[in-house]
Amino acid sequence: xxxxxxxxxxxxxxxxxxxxxxxxxxxxxxxxxxxxxxxxxxxxxxxxxxxxxxxxxxxxxxxxxxxxxxxxxxxxxxxxxxxx
Length: 84
Known about the structure:
Elements lengths: L2 H17 L4 H13 L3 H15 L3 H15 L12
Helix pairs in contact: 1-2, 2-3, 3-4
């Protein structure tokens, strides 16, 4: 999917997620769209919600956890406060 198409899809996906916040498929679509649009922090937030939905399934929870860890590696390093 091209970036323009992904960004155009974000608004309806966000609206769908608000209507059906516990719908796993809607959340997965939204998380993947955020990833494709380069909005990694937002994607991680949604994947964490998905993790809460699948936490009772060790296989699914593990897959989501590993995906979150991979995405966290794509975040820019946090600026550290300089010590005086």
